[in-house]
Amino acid sequence: MTNFGVDMAVHSSPLGFSYGNDVTGPMPEIRTLDQIRPSLRDPQCEGPEEVYAIAMDVARMQDRAELEKRMLLFGVVTYAAGTLGEEPIRSQGHVHRISLHSGWSPPELYEIWQGKAIIYMQEYVDDDPGRCFAVLAGPGDKVLVPPGWGHATISASPDEALTFGAWCDREYGFEYDAVRAHKGLAWYPLVQEKQIVWQHNTHYMPGRLQVITPRQYREFGLSDEPIYQQFIDDPARFQFISRPDKVADLWRNFHP
């Protein structure tokens, strides 16, 4: 796997991570199939019992004080190979809980490390989901989810593990209730002949799904370097993640 700025290894059996000498991180949390059934199209489906592993607050030891000062947190997630019935391996649909220190639902910046991903996002988790996007991404691609949007990360490579890193707010939290009340997000991804197709969730108003490829987000000062390396080079660069209010104008009419 390409070095994405943090000295760590990803393991598939069992799912998890190991850290280099100068890197610290928690024991991964394992999300099981039973835990995520409420957000799936078919809650009774079969699939891997351990669906994905997540480690939040991974960092080089010399960066920890700066990350805490800036209310930033780096997380890494790896998915099992396979499918969940007719659906690909995926996270639960959710919205980020409003952070007390900013008063905003934080954005999140993803970077794909291995495998292929679809970052699905929708403006609202009300009956009208607003604009809906599916961003197709591969290793090295970056995808930004704006504040307050419902979203999920979906594996587009059922035969291999998907692994990605992400910058998050240190006060991160997930809200699931509105998504679960609608039996998921507005579009269900389905695997048909190793391709991803989409089915509208009838618990939402009819709408349109835009399938797009990643862009570079130059307006946020991002470069093509790995996102952890970008923090090393300029610790202030990702302040827009923990303080989205400071760049409020950039979120208006945001296009992924």
TrEMBL record:
Q: Does the keyword Isomerase apply?
A: yes
Alphabetical list of Gene3D superfamilies matching this protein: Jelly Rolls
Can you name one GO molecular function term for this protein? Answer: isomerase activity
InterPro entries found in the cross-reference section = G6P_isomerase_prok (IPR010551), RmlC-like_jellyroll (IPR014710), RmlC_Cupin_sf (IPR011051)
Instruction: State the pathway, as annotated in the record.
Output: Carbohydrate degradation; glycolysis; D-glyceraldehyde 3-phosphate and glycerone phosphate from D-glucose: step 2/4
Where on the tree of life does the source sit, at the highest rank?
A: Bacteria
Q: What is its EC number?
A: 5.3.1.9
Which catalysed reactions does the entry list for this protein?
alpha-D-glucose 6-phosphate = beta-D-fructose 6-phosphate
Q: Which UniProt keywords apply?
A: Gluconeogenesis, Glycolysis, Isomerase
Q: Which residues form the Glucose-6-phosphate isomerase prokaryote domain?
A: 51-206
| Keyword Cell division assigned | no
Family classification: Belongs to the archaeal-type GPI family.
Q: What is this protein called?
A: glucose-6-phosphate isomerase
For this protein's source organism, the top of the classification is:
Bacteria, Pseudomonadati, Pseudomonadota, Gammaproteobacteria, Enterobacterales
